[in-house]
Structures are given as C-alpha cells and as structure tokens.
Amino acid sequence: MKSGALALHSREDHIKALALAGALLIVLPLLPLGNFVLYPFMILSTWFHEMGHGLAAILVGYDFERLVLYPDGSGVAESYGPMQRSRLADALVSAAGPIGPAVIGSLLILASANSRTWRPALYTLAAAIALSTLIWVDGMTGWIVLPLIALALVGIAARASAWAERFTLQFLGLQAALSMFAQWDYLLVEQATIGGQTMWSDTGQIEQALFLPHWFWAVAIIALAAVMIGASLKYALSPRRTANEWNRLP
User: Fold this and answer.
1) CA quadruple 118, 124, 129, 130: dihedral, nearest 10
2) Which positions ≥6 away from 120 have C-beta within 8 Å?
C-alpha cells in the first residue's frame, strides 16, 4: 500500500468531508448548472440501476440484450425470456433495478472498511464498467461517459493518496444510495416516460407480476435500501474500525 495523506486526517474530519459531499449531492441538483456538475454521477447511477436489471435477468435465465443510456440521464435494460415466463422471475428482474444502486453502494462502502480492499475495489468497479460498455451498452452517451469514469477510477487507484481511495469508495457508495432514494417519485408511480416512450415503472411491473400494489413494493424497496446502506455505513465508519485503519497506514 502506497503512503498517502490518510494520517493527516482524523476520523471526524473524514466523516465531515463525507457528510459535506452527501449534502452537495442533494443540494446541487436544485441549483443552476448543478445537474451539469453531477452529470457523470447521474449516468453512473443509471448504469447501476440498469445493470441491476440486466444481471438479474441473466441470473433467472433470461437473455440480457443491451443497456441504453439516454442523454437526459434515463436508461433502459432490454432482456428477453421464454414464452412461458415466471411471474416471480419477472418481479425479481424488475426489483433488481431500483435496489441495484443500494446493493452496489453498500458493497463499495463495505470495501472501504479495510485498506487491503480499497485499490482492488476501485479496479474491479472500473473493469466492470469497461466490460459492460463493450458487451451491453448501446448509445453514444454510454460510450463516452462510462469509459471516462472507468479511467478516472483507475487513475485514483494508481496514483491518488490512500485517503482519496477510501473516500472515493465511500462517496460513490453514498452517491449510489442517494440516487436510489432520489427515485422515490418514480417508484411511487405505475407508469413512466423513458426515452420518449410510456412504459410500466419498475414497481408497476412488480405489481403486474405479484398483484400487491406498486406503492407497497416501493416502500419495501426503499426500506430495504435504507437498512443496507445504514448497516454498511455503521460498519465502515465505526470508531474502532476507522482507528485501526488510521494506525495501520503511514
């Protein structure tokens, strides 16, 4: 592990910086040009969401055909299953999209708890983004933005300070989680317009498959995401664990 600036930062300073970054993620979209500043993170959040759909489709035996990212930050994952589709499989594929950012966010935050996993986690995320772009991503937006994000992650892993590696993992994890909670209005509607087409929302599709109302599934997904992110932050930022990491590095 390369030496870095981590020793110059206390646990309290680190948490304050993370809290400030989280606040900016919430406030910037409300300001002029705020969404322009956050545009790469918006595209990354959509990638988290749509990859959740796509990977779940593969797990239930469907064909993940392509992932389209639109310039406005929306996206769609196209997958195809057999003629006789399982309602439960359809519901799982639909639920994996909104819950995907929270799952990935939690994993990134958990990876930040141990200095041995900081650099590998950044390289792994960069490789996943690059490979998905080559295999599934369709459209100029994804072809331009996603490789740039992957290159930035590689640069941080290769040359940034240890503190920056850890902070990047936690920031991206927090950003993924907040992007999921920011979709509460999408989760609470049955239909939405994506890429100029009106279609069932994710919770609307779950409702079609499992009968219970879409708002029930929206509340369940939001609650599950909150538990996962809260537990991962509590684990990664616990005083004993952060003290051990501060003492381990030069």
Assistant:
1) 120
2) 111
Tokens 């997904």, residue located: 221
End-to-end CA distance of the chain: 9
Query: At 116, which helix (H) or strand (E)?
Result: helix 115-135
Q: Which residues pair with 76 in a beta bridge?
A: 68
Q: Residue 218, by phi and psi: left (phi above 0), alpha (psi -120 to 50) or beta?
A: alpha
CA distance 212 to 204: 10
- At 237, phi and psi to the nearest 5? -105, 15
pLDDT digits (tens, 9 = 90+) for 70-125: 998 889 999 987 877 788 999 999 999 999 999 999 999 999 988 899 999 999 99
Exposure pattern of 144-163 as b/e (b: 16+ CB <10 Å)? Answer: ebbbebbeebbebbeebbbb
Pick out the chain residues at pLDDT < 70: 1-11, 184, 193-196, 240-250
- Per-residue pLDDT, 243: 57
Q: How far apart are CA 247 and CA 67, in angstroms?
A: 43
What is the C-alpha to C-alpha distance for residues 47 and 69, in angstroms, rounded to an integer?
A: 8
Would you give the DSSP letter of residue 129?
Answer: H
Tell whether pTM > 0.70.
Answer: yes
What is the structure's pLDDT at 247?
A: 52
In terms of Cβ atoms closer than 10 Å to its own Cβ (0-12, 13-18, 19+), residue 81 is middle
